[in-house]
Amino acid sequence: MARIEGPSAVADQRPGSGVYPTSPLGRAEAGIPTGRDVEWEPLVDYRRAGVSETTIHGAVAWASGTKVMHSFGGNVLCYGRSMMKPFTLKVFADELAGCTTGQQAIAVASHNGDTEHVRAAQSLLSESEWGLVRTPLDVPLVQFGRQVRRPRRWYHTCSG
User: Fold this and answer.
1) Cα–Cα distances in Å, from 145 out to 26, 66, 151?
2) Which of 70, 79, 90, 117 is the most buried (most CB within 10 A)?
3) Is the pTM for the entire model greater than 0.70?
4) How far is CA 134 from the centre of its chain?
5) Is 45 helix (H, G, I), strand (E, B) or coil?
6) Are the C-beta atoms of residues 45 and 58 closer than 8 Å to each other?
7) Phi and psi at residue 71, in whole multiples of 5°?
8) Are 139 and 114 in contact (CB under 8 A)?
9) How far apart are CA 130 and CA 92, in angstroms?
10) How far apart are CA 37 and CA 117, in angstroms?
11) Among candidate residues 22, 31, 28, 27, the one with its CA nearest the CA of residue 4
């Protein structure tokens, strides 16, 4: 697998490029740690009535050019997925400036297909543009009683 040249975050000479796997299949490679090989640092500890309810562990690094300025939590390559959504919103802040907070949230989030989420996703397009949505067909995550919804593209978690 050839390395990407240019502005890619994993191009040669970029911070972390040396630990980026060359296997697209996720095979273990010597010298490249996985999440099970690292002693993660607690990043967030949410408490209710003084009792820890949720603790999120991870690793964080700050880099400038080719120099890692500071890092903690281990040397590991992983996909941030939902944990990266606040950063996604930052990147699109200017483009989403004219949108409501609900539209901004759905534009960078996954959702469960409930009425409020579908309404927010649909509000980003004019009704004549709704046919442009090409996510896979899906049903709402939660359906109550005898309510059975037919699969629609708007119910897909990424329709925003």
Assistant:
1) 41, 56, 17
2) 117
3) no
4) 19
5) strand
6) no
7) -150, 155
8) no
9) 21
10) 38
11) 22
- Cβ atoms of residues 99 and 107 within 8 Å: yes
Q: By three-state DSSP, how is residue 101 classified?
A: helix
Residue 146 has pLDDT above 90, yes or no: no
Backbone angle region of 129, left / alpha / beta, with phi > 0 → left and psi within -120 to 50 → alpha:
alpha
Of 71, 104, 64, the C-alpha closest to 88 is 104
Distance from C-alpha of 71 to C-alpha of 63, rounded to nearest angstrom:
9
Bridge partners (DSSP) of residue 130 are none
**Tokens encoding 131:** 């046919």
**SS3 (DSSP) at 81:** helix
Amino acid identity, position 63:
A
Task: Find the angle CA(139)-CA(145)-CA(151) to the nearest 5 degrees.
Answer: 15
